Amino acid sequence: MDPEKRKEEFYVSKDVMVDILSRLPVISLLRFKSVCTRWRDIISSPSFASLHLKCSLSNPTRHSILVRTNSKKMLIPFDPLTYSPFSNLDIYCNLGSFGQRVLFVGSINGLLCICGSSGRWICLWNPSTRLFKKIETGINGRSSDFSVGFGHDLIANDYKVVVIHRRRRVTRTGVKVWSANFESWREIKVDCDFTFKQCVCDTMVKGFAYWIVWNGLGSNSKILVASFDMSTEVLRLVPVPQDYYHPDRLYGLIWKEKFALAAFDRTKICQVWTIENDSVGKESWSKKFTFKLDFGFNFYTIDAGNGKLLYNRESRGLVFYDLETTKMKTVEIRKNNYLASGAHYYVESLLSIKGFKRLRENTKKMKRPTISHTF
């Protein structure tokens, strides 16, 4: 056949090619960038990354729950529908490349945020593409308490990191925000003082980061929920529902795309509350439902996204619990007494931010633990 006629017969328009490629997993697209210049230019464009993310969000097979263990520097991916561990997902990665002690902040649109335990740096990382960016915070964890949140400014399409910090022996809370669009930090003025219970935010949902905090001492102490709006960069506080006085029995989670508060008592009964109008500036808590756990756990609850909770059992193993279906699944990791120290919903993507570099050390896979699961 004449070469020119063969070209015409097998020609595929750019629109059709983009549509086909946007439905493929990231690992295939990274290989296909080497096929030809045309494919490389398509796959490398920001507009294609946005289209691919839209397809991934609508495709459950591209979703996973990443569970961070405390014993090993690894992320173990689980299927969010069956709670079965994935055996062939390419995002199974070693966190050891980032240092000895790493905190898992959150996951949005395929970007993970982690930070050093000293608070001196944070890192945005796409584990599917093996690209990352490390940012100095200017915080010294030895002299300051800190807590980190990660979010997406939906209006400006900007990914932001917020750090709440408080110098020890100084009763004043400070807030600073890093913007991926501007590649810089800015201080946010706040006229309040409070203490936070952990070094990462409790929950992130729809452009907000949430913390369970308290102010005052002793009998004058008041438990609050702090929210930071990534678009307006405004911090707000609201008291939690009455009769809850201990922050260690309160957990933030996501329920039907809203922030929710789970409150446990000493009998393993939990009440779930939401703020109806999604505005933490208005005290409009509404109790949605109550549930009881019929197994022993150590009050270490992790929000795994979309109404899914993860518990560390008193005996070895993890328990996934679906608030909507009330189904429970136990995952036992044999031969290793692992505990989950973090879990976040993950969607693979090609998203990148300015200044991303390749993390070559992270391509090494760690030996997988032996995992079994029961209903």
Molecular structure report:
With 375 residues, the chain is mainly beta. Helix content is 11%, strand content 43%. It is built from five helices and 26 strands. The chain has a five-stranded antiparallel beta sheet, with no helix packed on it. Strands 11, 12, 13, 14 and 15 form a five-stranded antiparallel beta sheet that branches. It has a five-stranded antiparallel beta sheet with strand order 20-21-22-23-26, with no helix packed on it. A hairpin with a 4-residue loop joins strand 14 and strand 15. The longest helix is centred in the N-terminal third of the chain and has 12 residues, at 46-57. The N and C termini lie far apart (60 Å). Residues 362-370 have low confidence and may be disordered.
